[in-house]
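MOLECULE: protein
FOLLOWS: sequence and fold
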Amino acid sequence: MSQITSFIAKHTTISNKAINATLKLLSEDCSIPFIARYRKELTGNLDEVALGEIVNFKTLFENLEKRKSSISSTLQEQGDLTPELKDKINNCESLVTLEDLYLPYKKKRKTKAEIARKQGLEPLAKIIMSQNADNLEQTAKRFLNTEIKTAETALVGARHIIAEWISERQDIRAMLRQNMERYALITTKVKSAQKTEEKAQKYRDYFDWSESLSRCPSHRLLAILRAETEGYIRLKIEVDQDRIVNKIESKIIRSHSDCATQIQLAIEDSFKRLLLPSISNEALQKAKAKADDQAILVFSKNLKQLLLAAPLGEKRILAIDPGFRTGCKVVCLDAQGNLKHNETIFPHAPKNDSIGAIKKISQLAEAYKIEAIAIGNGTASRETEQLIKKVHFKHDVEVYIVSEAGASIYSASKIARAEFPNYDVTVRGAVSIGRRLSDPLAELVKLDPKSIGVGQYQHDVDQAKLKGSLDRVVENSVNTVGVNINTASQYLLSYVSGIGPKLAENIIAYRTENGSFGSRAEIKKVPRLGEKAFQQSAGFLRIKDAKNPLDDSAVHPERYALVNQIAKDRNTDVAALIGNTAELSAINLEFYCNESIGLPTLKDILTELEKPGLDVRAKAKVFTFNKNIKTISDVQVGQVLPGIVNNITNFGCFVDIGIKESGLIHISNLADGFVSDVNAHVSLQEHVIVKVLEVDINRKRIQLSLKR
C-alpha cells in the first residue's frame, strides 16, 4: 500500500481499493463528475462527496510531502539532519508535528535567548538544567564579562535560553495543545471608545462574552473575529496558567535546589512570553479553520440547492426589474431567453402612471405571446406584483417572484457586457431576472457564487478553500443536470466535465460557424477537443432531436454498442426500447455484466432508457406573499404568513415574507422535536407557512417559527 493511500485511508472510511482506483483515474485527468457517473464499478460506487474527500486529502498529503522535502533540504544545508531526525521527519503525518520538529533548528531572529547565547551564557543554562550545582550564584559569577556585570544578569540570560528550550519541547507543546483543546476559553471585551457607536451595536452580544473555544459554533466565532477585525472588541484565549505551569514543572524539575528555583522562573517566562502566544494563536487558527469548513459546507449546500432550483423551462417570459423613481424596467424574452423588447414603465411614485403601465403590460403580453411574468424581489417588488394582478390578460399568464441577489453584479460584469453590448445595466438586470425563472442554473453560473447571498460570513472564511468548494458544487450541479450543447452559453459549457473555458469558447465558435450539432460524434470536430475531452464530456452534453435518441440522454457513447446489443436481444431497436417500461423491466441485467461493466452502470442505463434526459429538478411553482405585509411595521406577533426560505445556516434559516427584512427561524423553532441538521427540515427556495414570534423594529429583526 502506497504512502498516499495509507494517509487517505487513515483520514476517511473509504477502502484502499476504492482510493487506489480513484487516484489512478485522477492521474488520467478524469473529472469527479465523470468518475462518479461512469466509473462506479472501479470506485465501489463512490459519490461526488467521497471523491471530493479523496481529492482534499490527496492535496493535504502532497503539501505535507513538499514541506518535508523543504525542511530536510534546509537541515541538510545547516548540517543538522541526523539519520534519526530524518526518520522522524519522514514519519510525520501532520504539519503541526513537522513544524514542532523543525522549530529548534529554525534560524532565529534577534531573540532574548539568542542574545544570551552570544554573551556566552549557554553553558550556564546547561548547568542549571542539570540541577546539580550547589552554589549557583558563585557558579554564575564565572560567566561575568564586559556585557554581563552581575550574577543576576547572568542568571536572567540563562533563564531566557532555558525558556526557549522549554518552548521548543515537543512533549510540552503537545500537552499545551491538548489542554487548549479541552479547556481554553474565548473571551471578549468591548473597547470603551466603541461601546456607544451605532455600528458596534450589531456586536453587542459580544461586548462581554466568554465560552469554551472548542464549543463555540462556527457562526459565533466568525462574528466575534469580524467584530475584532473591525475594532469593536478585544479578544483573548485563556487557560488555567497554574495548572499548565505545574504540569511543565513536573516534567522538568527533579530537585529543590537553587537550580529548581531558576527553572521555575524560566518556566513561567516561557509560558507567558513564548508558549501561550504561540499555542493560543495556533488554537484560534485551528478553530477558525474548523469554523471556515462549517461555513463553507453551509454555503455549498445552499448553493447546490439554489443551482438545482426548479426551472420554468422554455417559456416566453416578461421580466420586470421593479423600482420607484427610476421606474420598472420591462423586457420580453423568447422561449430560448433571447431579448426581443425592452422599455421602462412608471406605475409607482412619483409619476404614478399605473393606468399606462397596465395598458403597456397587457399589450406586450399579447404581442409577444407571454406565458409567464418574472418580478424581481427587490425595491417596489410587492407594489409591482399588485399592479400586475390588476392586468386582464387574454390568455393564462403565471406570475413569479424571482430573487434578484447578484443580478446587479451580473449586469455590470464583463459577461453581461459581452452578451448585451448595446444595452445598459438596467436592461441586463431585467434579462437576468427573466432567465433565472426559465433556468436558474444556466443563469447563476455566470455569477461569482459569493454574490448570490446564500452564505454565512462568506467574506470572512479562507477564500481559496471557499472558491475550490464552490467551483466543485457548480461543476457537479451542471453535470448532474446535463447541458444542451446547441443552446448553452459559453459559461455553462465551461463547467461541463472535461471542457473548461477555452474549449467552451471553441464550441461556441464552431456552433456559430457550422450551425447546431447533429450528433455527439460531431463534437469531436471542435478544434482542440481530443479523445480525452470527448470521453469526459460526452455523457453530460445533450443533443435534442438527434438521429440517435441516445444523444439526448445520459448514456455515455462508450455504452452505445451495449444498448444496441440489448435492443437486438429484445428483437427491437433502441428508439422502440426507450420509454417502453414493460420491455425494459423484462431485461436481465446480470446477463450483461462483465469485467468492465457491472450492475450500478447497467441500472443507470436502464433508468435513463425509461426517461432519457430527464431533468432531475422539480417544476417551478407560483407563490404569493400576504398582500397586507409591505414593511416590518405591518408584521405583528402571532401572525401566520407565507414565506420562501432564502438562506440556510447552522443555527436556523432565513425566510423572505415579502418585505426588505428576512425573518429568522432559529433551529429551536424549526420543529417540535430536537433538530440537529437544519437541511433535514427545510430546503432553499422552499415555500413555508411561518408564525411570527417576535418583532424588533429598532434592530430590524423578526423571529419566526415553523412549529405546528
Observations:
- The chain has a mean pLDDT of 93.
- The domain at 119-297 is CATH 1.10.3500.10 (Tex N-terminal region-like).
- The chain has five domains: 3-105, 119-297, 317-493, 500-610, 632-705.
- The CA atoms of residues 313 and 497 lie 23 Å apart.
